[in-house]
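Note to self: keep these together.
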Amino acid sequence: MPRFTYKAYDTSGNLRTGEVAANTRTGALDMLVRRSEFPIEIIDRATPASAAWWQRDVFGARQWPARDLAAFTRELSTLVQANIALDEALRIVAIQPLVQRRVREATERILEHVNEGQSLSEALQAQTPAFPDYYCRLVEAGESGGALAEALDDLARFTERSADVRARIGSALLYPAVLLTAAFAAVGVIATVLLPAIQPIFEDAKVEPPFVIGVMTSIQSFLSNNWPLVGLLFTGVCAGLLAGNRSPSLRLQRDRLLLKVPLIGRVIEHSETARFSRTLSAMLRNGVPVLEAVQTSGGVLANASFQAAVRTAGTTIKEGGSLTAPLARSGVFPDLFVRLASVGEKSGQLDAMLTRVAEIYDATVQRQLDRLTNLLTPLLTLLIGAVVGTLILSVMDALVSVNELALK
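Structure:
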């Protein structure tokens, strides 16, 4: 039987927390009311205990991968546009044989909430963080305007575009990642297999090994003799990085520095601009109020500098100002975005202009990634060849020295 965690006030006004077992969320609410407790929050635990250990989500609930979200949205959109009732459409999505387990389980919970009388947007919000905030807002806007099918179709195209952009970025970075992995593997084999095999020969002959081999042997010896200290330092560095990532001021400083890095900074700038433009355009096109759309769109950004600029723009809009003026003053958004968004804002076609901006910067990011990959690939190849070649030549030099020692 499903279990629900809850927070509720008792008759004395004390806040209580706990769990109840019930077939549905409504049943859990009724049980609490009969116990004279007044719930303010109730959440389906949806424990994965019945699933095999290798199928469980190690890191708990998290947002779906872009490809899963796009596939779910496209299928649901197609069914709703075919005038199939929402509950029946959700059932069809849930029974598809190729659907991922996490998608099937979430769809079943959404169906349960819908059957209890909740709207689709409310049911999606209950599955946080599987569905991003902008996703729920767009669905809610479609329901409010009686255009759920159109909103889902817009979301399907939006999520498919986002998944395609991420896939292209991943493909562009795949080859450099393979090169780096191969380099680390080659160095690891030399350091852990070849060097320990030939080092005793030099020690027995009381002869100094070649410089590179000596350096690597010293490093290996230091790590072996001081591994607790090294492990402690590594843990401290990781903890510091995690703490810094959670500190808004440190994240802001870090992301500002990233924007100044040659090549990489421009890719981040244009990628964030495209993401913000695409999200804001979709929300405005579906009737979401400007202030709410801007605040929600800022939440999809990864760079703290862009997030700060969008928050400032939200404050300006709340006070009756324009969108583009504070974004222009922030200095993080490109000039082309500011000009085109300003034209769209003045002409009343901001959503259409932002769609065009997103297309421009999506194409720009792809070109920049292609150039970056074309530049990194030969540089990494030369660097890896130099490192591995130096190590191999050092080993060969050592073997020749060993032979000379044997002949003496």
